[in-house]
Design brief:
Blueprint: H1 13-31, E1 38-42, E2 48-56, E3 59-67, H2 75-87, E4 97-99, E5 104-108, H3 115-118, H4 124-140, H5 152-170, H6 177-195, E6 199-202, E7 211-212, E8 219-220, E9 227-230, H7 233-239, H8 248-264, H9 273-300, H10 311-324, H11 329-338
Antiparallel strand pairs: 1-2, 2-3, 3-5, 4-5, 6-9, 7-8
């Protein structure tokens, strides 16, 4: 999540145009005809995606070109993890062609609609049931020493985005010794709970914007930052999304459905749903705090202000679990003082 302007520029428009021209030429060489891509999607990273439509015999085809400029991005994890997830039997793009030194990939076109645009109150149960099944397939193939570990150092680096970017940079708050001690106590609690959970493969952004309306459904994207870590992380992300919120009673029902299926699949979830929900609540709190910091960073460092408008959504998620967990009362008091 780190481009330099609202357009995700790197060294200005000329550098972007040069990379786009180079990508067009590379894709043209791969398919054997001259093509020029149109923007397919944008995200909060340096990566860009372009859709290439062309005629192949009597049929119309469409492929996606990924531009992931080195050294800001590295395509190798995407390629490696795509293969890993494909082996799990979930729908991910296979790699048609690659130029890793230049940061170019050619991928199948999984369509233009993400779940963010097609989810509704009426179809959410059916779709989330499929998302749960896909997640469990991924988690069932989990092994240690394959993906990077979601360890204490990474959990704490993520949490530190909140004081660094939201408190200091965005709100202009001096994090003095007293506030630092308060934050440390909260962070210690969240990290300890995450580390004692069962460990599985973690997508890290398993949410509707990264699930494609495709056949088979869902198509899964943006998995290149996957790690080996807490079993509750991805399913909590799925239902406590950055861009769409659901009534808490429906969230609890979906979490219980996941827990039941995870137990049946012999995944390392607790024996009781209440204990699993406790894990989800504190894991979610870690993620929500991190994301607030990320959104502030995207604005102040990268020039993308639109993400900050979703901070109240994450504060609402935090307030929900604070009301349910006595150990999070200090976090609630901190939010009160910050006026959040």
């Amino acid at each position: 999540m780190q481009p330099a302007t609202e357009a995700g520029q790197i060294g200005g428009e000329s550098a972007q145009d040069e990379r786009k021209s180079a990508l067009d030429a590379w894709v043209s060489m791969q398919i054997g005809q001259q093509v020029s891509g149109l923007p397919a999607s944008a995200d909060a990273s340096f990566r860009r995606y372009f859709r290439y439509k062309f005629t192949d015999g009597d049929s119309q085809r469409s492929l996606i070109g990924m531009d992931a400029p080195p050294p800001q991005e590295d395509c190798r994890p995407f390629v490696r993890i795509a293969g890993l997830l494909a082996d799990a039997g979930v729908h991910v793009p296979h790699i048609i062609a690659q130029d890793l030194p230049r940061g170019f990939l050619l991928l199948p076109d999984m369509g233009a609609e993400t779940w963010l645009t097609v989810l509704s109150e009426d179809n959410a149960d059916e779709r989330f049931s499929r998302a749960i099944d896909a997640l469990i397939r991924i988690q069932r193939i989990s092994q240690p020493n394959v993906l990077p570990v979601y360890d204490e150092a990474l959990l704490r680096r993520e949490l530190e985005l909140f004081p660094e970017w939201y408190l200091k940079k965005h709100l202009g708050i001096d994090v003095d010794a007293a506030l630092r001690a308060e934050l440390d106590a909260i962070f210690d609690l969240l990290v300890a709970r995450a580390l004692r959970q069962g460990q599985v493969y973690v997508h890290r952004d398993y949410m509707p914007r990264n699930l494609m309306d495709s056949d088979p459904d869902p198509g899964i994207l943006d998995f290149q930052d996957a790690v080996y870590g807490p079993v509750s992380y991805d399913v909590t992300s799925l239902f406590k999304d950055a861009f769409i919120s659901w009534p808490e009673d429906r969230v609890l029902g979906w979490l219980e459905l996941y827990w039941q299926r995870a137990r049946a699949a012999a995944l390392p979830v607790p024996a009781s749903f209440e204990e699993f929900l406790h894990d989800c609540d504190l894991m979610g709190a870690q993620r929500h705090i991190k994301v607030i910091g990320i959104f502030a960073r995207i604005w102040h460092r990268d020039g993308k202000p639109k993400y900050l408008q979703d901070v109240p959504r994450f504060v609402a998620y935090l307030r929900t679990v604070i009301a349910r967990r006595d150990e999070l009362v200090p976090l609630g008091a901190l939010l009160d003082r910050l006026g959040l």
